[in-house]
Amino acid sequence: MRGIDREVSYVQFEHAAPDDTWVEITNLFVSSFAAPPYNESPGELESIEQWGRGQLASPGGRLVAASHHGHVIGFALSQRLDQDTSWQRRLNGMAPAQDAVITPSRTVIVQELAVDESFRGRGIAKQCVRELLSNRTEHDAVLGVFGQALQVREMYGRWGFLELGASPIYGGTVTLHALHHRLPWTA
Predict the structure, then answer these.
(1) How far apart are CA 82 and CA 30, in angstroms?
(2) Tell me: the pLDDT tens digits for 52-83?
């Protein structure tokens, strides 16, 4: 690990997380996804504090928060695929790019992953995903990446995730690429 990485701690939450953790996650989420290449609406992004809590409370829900000197600098959030009908519809509508059989009750979705811009490139995202996917009862993991986030998609490819397919979202203005990995994930 590089110097700063030794000062990063990772905490897993199952079912619920403290309010102050959600405040920091919301701030990080907004700063990460309101910026290029995503350019999403900050007002809409702030709603993670509500829907994120619901995902964490659902089956397969897990939150990993990476902290540096007591402040959240990265996080990953999951829930099981059978808890998210929009993801199920999206996957069912894709022409699969590989021979993967996805069983919703045995698949976890990496719903969100973000790292503070000043801490990127230090392995924090990978460790958040490692913690998120460790000791899972599910057999598969899926996640989505916006088409314009080519570097992020390439990062997941280096981690062994394979493309399942792509679908238009937001009225066809964005392409979402669905990626897959069998569990356990050992990257």
Answers:
(1) 27
(2) 999 999 999 999 999 999 999 999 999 999 99
**Does pLDDT of 40 surpass 60?**
yes
Using a pLDDT cut of 90, give the percent of the chain over it.
83
User: Which pairs count as long-range contacts for 166-175, CB under 8 Å and 24+ apart, including other chains?
Assistant: 166/94, 167/90, 167/93, 167/94, 169/90, 174/146, 174/147, 174/148, 175/146, 175/147
pLDDT tens per residue, range 125-134: 999 999 999 9
Domains and CATH numbers, the chain: 3-182 (3.40.630.30)
35's tokens: 């910026």
| Residue burial 104-121, b: 16+ Cβ < 10 Å; e: rest | bebbbbbbbbbbbeebee
With beta carbons less than 8 A apart as the criterion, state whether 65 and 21 touch: yes
Give 35-52 as a DSSP string. Answer: STTT---HHHHTTHHHHH
HSE at residue 144, side-chain half, CA atoms within 13 A, is 20
* 30 three-state secondary structure: helix
Antiparallel, parallel or unpaired: β 71-80 and 107-115 = antiparallel
Mean pLDDT of 156-184: 91
